[in-house]
Amino acid sequence: MATAPVGPGATIGRFPVYEKVLDQLISNDFDFLIGGGHAYNLYTKLDRPSRDFDIFVREEDCPEALALMERIGLETELSFPHWLGKAKRDDVTVDFIYGSGNGIAPVDEDWFRHAVEGELWGRRVRFCPVEELIWSKSFIMERERYDGAEIAHLFHSCAETLDWPRLAARFGEQWPVLLSHLVLFHFIYPFDRNKMPLAITQFMLKRFRSQLVEPAPERRICNGTLLSRAQYLIDIEEWGYLDARLEPSGRMKPDDVAHWTEAMRKEGIID
């Protein structure tokens, strides 16, 4: 059984609340996955302190998860209805995640089908699959947060056992993002570049070369908003580009984007 190292950040103060959360979910046979820093530690064998406690659930199960938290005295809110609920007590927060801020990575049955069993704080749990962990993190390229180093470390630890076809399928039309991380891995770890399967890199490079000579898309769309919720607002608000997060190219609705953007203003990330 795999075991996630427990960083000191998870053992100071927050630990009793996190244990209580786990016990409540387990005792009620609630189906969930451990993600975030704890899953990252599991796959990389690192012991990085985790600031948060991320629990992944199906979207339809999130209301039940929040109700279970209320029964043990946590305050709850559906912070961002398109992907995130929260449970809080004092300065401790537990995130209940069923998607991603950009709408790219909904938690579907494959997350649970390929989950990895393990142990956290003496309890048997299941962790998010490493392929889904890479997929969801690959798009985080904010000014204040960039998860590229985590992707490189996950490749370094797991490249030889990854289900590469499944990972590539997860990216779908966003495959250039995966290619960008493959290229960066070659740059970061020249000594270890042979860990990466040559076939997947060659396939993506061939696809990229083909795209270079194809006509440009008819729609003037900006995919940058899939990578950063803040840095490409000027493109869609002032430069006339279509927002890739919005239907039909994306999964988000205008109200989701407006709520997500307003939160940045409240946090002082943008004016």
Termini gap? 48 Å
Shape call? globular
Strand order of the largest sheet: 2-3-6-5-4
Q: Which class do the helix and strand fractions yield?
A: alpha/beta
Discrete helix count: 11
Low-confidence blocks of residues: 7-13
Q: What's the total number of strands?
A: 10
Helix % is: 40-55%
Query: What average pLDDT do the residues reach?
Result: 93
Which percent range describes the beta-strand content?
5-15%
H and E string: EHEHEHEEEHEEHHHHHEHEH
Q: Biggest sheet, open or closed, and with what strands and sense?
A: 5 strands, mixed
Q: Nearest-angstrom radius of gyration?
A: 19 Å
Describe this structure as you would to a colleague.
By secondary structure, the protein is α/β, with parallel strands linked by helices. It contains eleven helices and ten strands. It has helices at 15-27, 36-44, 62-71, 109-113, 130-137, 148-158, 164-171, 175-188, 198-212, 233-237, 254-267; strands at residues 2-3, 33-34, 53-56, 75-80, 84-89, 92-97, 116-120, 123-127, 221-222, 242-243. The strands form three sheets. A five-stranded mixed β-sheet has the order 2-3-6-5-4. A three-stranded mixed β-sheet has the order 1-7-8. Strands 9-10 form a two-stranded parallel sheet. It is globular and about 60 Å long. The protein starts with a strand and ends with a helix. Mean pLDDT is 93; it is low at 7-13.
